[in-house]
Amino acid sequence: MNNKIASPDPELAKSGGRSASLHGTLGHALVFFTAWILITLAGITPRPHLDSLDDVQVGEPSPRTVTAPFTFKFVDQKETERLRSDAEKTVPRTFERVGGVVEGAMEKWDALVEIAQGRSNGLWANENEVTEASQSAKQFWVGLNKEQQNLLSDMAKDPVKTEAVENRMLHTLVDEDILLSQDELRLLQPTASTQAVPWKLKKLDGTMEYNQSGAAVLSVTTAQRLVSRDVADLHFQNTPVAEKLADDLAHAFIRPTLRLDQYKSQLDRQAAKAEIPSVSITVKQNQNIVRKGEEVLQDEYAALVELSTKKQSRAGEITARAMLLAVVLGLFFA
């Protein structure tokens, strides 16, 4: 019997070694990828489902807690609009001087005095000499009744009274700023929080003058009423006919000397609003935007709306985390 001991096959031993080494490598790889996937997924903050915000209302308790999955900014529209509105209110409005009002009124007054004095025939003898002022004076005269014409004729015969009425109207037109309407006048009236309202006057030569609201700014109806009262009391007999004549004179001669420059004022307000930057709010990653059961505030709701519109790719976020972990785990298992 042959008791010879067989020697180990070198090829077989080499093959077994390779198998064990392969199993070890696969085990390490399995552990590597398992750890890689688990750590990557565990590190990703679940994103809230915000396809619909129908169940979230400002001023109502939140039905759920929403956590920011990433850092983002959003514009606080309400605060931004408030600041821009405040800036717009502080912009001085621009008014411009109406040219030719004083000169036109005085020319019309001279023409009317001549008509009342009976020297009007020559005014229209030559059509080329007819002016807008003389035509307007003639229309005013024709519109008066006989009693008013007689009263005005008596006044025109007295140079002192004639000059006094003229000076009263001239004082109002020159020394006071007269606006067309009460709406324009309200723009210059101080409020409970302001002592005076600044405004800019665009003069006839184009230069600007900065002013503040004051008693000298009147609406045309107020200016006409004051002139009518003074003329009736001081220069005519205080009778119904005199009051009516004084009222007609005031309405015919006292016209607005100031008007709002809508275009320039609008440009200034737009420029002031444009200078105010948007107010942004930063929400940090993992910050609770709203908590379940707590009242939803306006800015919190705005953050939810902004979050719901974000279209950031989840695949990109996962890829970035996976690449980082692959490097770390690769160094660990090397």
How would you explain this protein's 3D organization?
54% of the residues lie in helices and 11% in strands. It is α/β, with parallel strands linked by helices. It has a domain at 99-176 and 216-256. Strands 6-5-3-8 form a 4-stranded mixed β-sheet, with helices on one face. The mean pLDDT is 78.
Highlighted features:
alpha/beta; 334 residues; 10 strands; two-stranded antiparallel sheet; four-stranded mixed sheet; single chain
Short description:
The protein has 334 residues and is of the alpha/beta class. The chain has helices spanning 10-42, 77-89, 101-116, 132-143, 146-156, 159-175, 182-186, 220-234, 240-253, 262-274, 298-309, 314-333, and strands at 66-67, 72-75, 93-97, 177-179, 198-202, 208-212, 217-219, 258-260, 280-283, 288-290.
What order do the helices and strands come in, and which of them pair?
Blueprint: H1 10-42, E1 66-67, E2 72-75, H2 77-89, E3 93-97, H3 101-116, H4 132-143, H5 146-156, H6 159-175, E4 177-179, H7 182-186, E5 198-202, E6 208-212, E7 217-219, H8 220-234, H9 240-253, E8 258-260, H10 262-274, E9 280-283, E10 288-290, H11 298-309, H12 314-333
Parallel strand pairs: 3-5, 4-7
Antiparallel strand pairs: 1-10, 2-9, 3-8, 5-6
Helix pairs in contact: 1-12, 2-10, 3-4, 3-5, 3-6, 5-9, 6-8, 8-9
Radius of gyration: 44 Å
Q: Between the first and last Cα atoms, what is the distance in angstroms?
A: 53 Å
Give the assembly state of these chains. Answer: single chain
Instruction: Supply the number of helical segments.
Output: 12
Helical content stands at: 40-55%
Shape: rod-shaped
The proportion of residues in beta strands is 5-15%
Q: What is the strand tally?
A: 10
Order of helices and strands: HEEHEHHHHEHEEEHHEHEEHH
| Average of the residue pLDDT scores | 78
Low-confidence stretches: none
Strand order, main sheet: write it out. Answer: 6-5-3-8
| Largest sheet geometry | 4 strands, mixed
Kindly name the structural category. alpha/beta
